Amino acid sequence: MDAEKTSKGLSNKDLMSLSSTQKLLQYIDKYRQRFPKAAITPELIFTSANTYYNAERYNDAIPVYRQIVSDYPQYKDAAKASRMLGQCYVFIKEYDKAITLYQTLLSK
Fold first, then answer.
1. Domain ranges for the chain
2. Name one Pfam family in it (predicted).
3. Of 61, 55, 64, 58, which Cα lies nearest the Cα of 2?
4. Residue 18: phi, psi to the nearest 5?
5. Are residues 99 and 87 in contact, defined by beta-carbon separation less than 8 angstroms?
6. Cβ distance 69 to 78 under 8 Å?
7. Regarding the domain with residue range 2-107, which homologous superfamily does it belong to in the CATH classification?
């Protein structure tokens, strides 16, 4: 569906404003608060972070990626979440934070 809408001229930012996307983010937030230990929770949180990232809402994505890295370090995409967090810092021009994060990743 997203590819179809994008091909019709809607950007990722436009898709973010759709009520279905907003409802998805609200659902994920409620679910992760209610079931923080559920096996699917890290995947849902990652989906939420990526949704913000794709909509270029980097300031919203940052705390969500941070939650994955800190609360779910064993999650299969935790390293990717760290890299995405670094990209968010770059996009908002917080280069010192990005460099520190990337140096930490390289030292592991």
1. 2-107
2. TPR_19
3. 55
4. -65, 140
5. no
6. yes
7. Tetratricopeptide repeat domain (1.25.40.10)
CA pair distance 81, 28, nearest whole angstrom? 17
Contact 13, 56 (CB under 8 A): yes
Name, in order, each residue with C-beta under 8 angstroms of 22's C-beta and a sequence gap of 6 or more: 16
> CB-based contacts of 70: which residues, under 8 Å, 6+ apart?
none
Task: Write out the two tokens for 75.
Answer: 């999650």
Q: What are phi and psi of 6, to 5 degrees?
A: -65, -40
**Whole-number Å distance between alpha carbons of 97 and 75:** 23
Question: Tokens 């809607």 — which residue?
Answer: 10
Distance CA 81, CA 75 (A): 10
Residue pLDDT, tens place only, 37-90: 899 999 999 999 999 998 899 999 999 999 999 999 999 999 999 999 999 999
Cα angle 12-57-47, degrees, rounded to a multiple of 5 = 70
Using an 8 Å Cβ cutoff, are 84 and 50 in contact? yes
